[in-house]
Amino acid sequence: MTHKEKLHERIKNNPVNVRFDDAVTWLHSWGFIQQGGKGSHTVFIHPDYTGKLTFQNVNGMAKAYQIKQALKAIKEMGHE
User: Fold this and answer.
1) CB–CB of 15/71 below 8 Å?
2) What does the alpha-carbon distance between residue 79 and residue 62 come to, in Å, rounded to a whole number?
3) Between 44 and which of 25, 48, 53, 63 could a Cys-Cys bridge form, CB atoms 3.0 to 4.6 Å apart?
4) Position 5 pLDDT exceeds 70
5) What residues make up the domain containing 48?
6) What was the pLDDT predicted at 4?
7) How far, CA to CA in Å, does 67 sit from each of 33, 46, 71?
8) What's the whole-model pTM score?
9) Which of 21, 8, 11 lies closest to 57 in space, CA to CA?
10) What band does 80 get if pLDDT is binned at 50, 70 and 90?
11) Which tens digits make up the pLDDT trace of 13-51?
C-alpha cells in the first residue's frame, strides 16, 4: 500500500481528526491545486471537478464537514 493509499484510508476512516497539513498533502496527491484563499481559508480546485473545495485551518486541524465534502468530490470524479 502506497503512502497516498494509507493517508486516504486513514482520512476516510476518521474524517473528524485530520490535521490541516495532512489534508493539504492528501488533496495535492489527488491532483487538487491550491488557489488562493483568505485568512485561515484555503481554496482548492481540480480540472475534473466543477466545484471548489474550501478548507479552514482551525488550530492546525481541518473541519470534518470539509473533509467529507472532499471525499465526496473524489468519489464523484471516479478516483476512489
Assistant:
1) yes
2) 21
3) 53
4) yes
5) 3-76
6) 84
7) 16, 15, 6
8) 0.88
9) 21
10) low
11) 999 999 999 999 999 999 999 998 888 899 999 998 999
CA 80 – CA 38 distance, rounded (Å): 30
pLDDT exceeds 90 at position 77 = no
Q: Which residues contact 28 (CB under 8 A, 6 or more apart)?
A: 34
* DSSP character string of the chain: --HHHHHHHHHHH-TTS-BHHHHHHHHHHTT-EE----TTEEEEEETTEEEEEEEEEETTEE-HHHHHHHHHHHHHTT--
> If you count them, how many residues does the chain have?
80
- Report the domain count for the chain: 1
Domain of 57, CATH number, reads 3.30.920.30
Which three cell numbers, joined as nine digits, stand for 29?
496527491
